[in-house]
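I hope you will forgive my troubling you with a question about protein structure. I am sending you one protein, given as its amino acid sequence and as whole-number tokens for its backbone shapes. Thank you for your consideration; the sequence and its tokens are set out here:
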Amino acid sequence: MMLFKPFNIVLIEPEIPPNTGNIARLCGATRSILHLVGKLGFSTDDKTLKRAGLDYWKEVEIRYWQNLTEIKEAFPDGRFFYTSKKAEKSYVDVQYTEGDFLVFGKETAGLPEELLRENPDTTIRIPIFGKVRSINLATATGIVLYEALRQTGRLSEAP
């Protein structure tokens, strides 16, 4: 078995328990670390959250942070990619490396505009066609994470 640095999924103020539960399950399945940042829109004891993660919670490494500044200070060499439907660059046009931080905003508002303006080179989007405004948070997380896993050769290591 090869050693690798896990990817980091960062959720800023997630609001919907099933989304976070599904993302936690995704993190467990991919050996990624889940970082929950700021005020959550639910209790981590929430039945819906637990049900969405099923019985996989013991497989998930979860870290809690007060704000994004705190996590960035803890990982000063970390590479952070911010997701937004307003970004110019597609998620497939980025070269990911193991250990990257993939940052997603809350379901109703996304990431703060100021954060996106400060990080145009590392802000990415998932192309959306038609009149749909956005993709579900858990789906978007899976799309970007699996592209990062593909690029780093991690998918070929799966059993």
Observations:
- Strands lie at 8-12, 33-37, 61-65, 80-83, 89-90, 101-104, 123-125.
- The first strand starts at residue 8 and ends at 12.
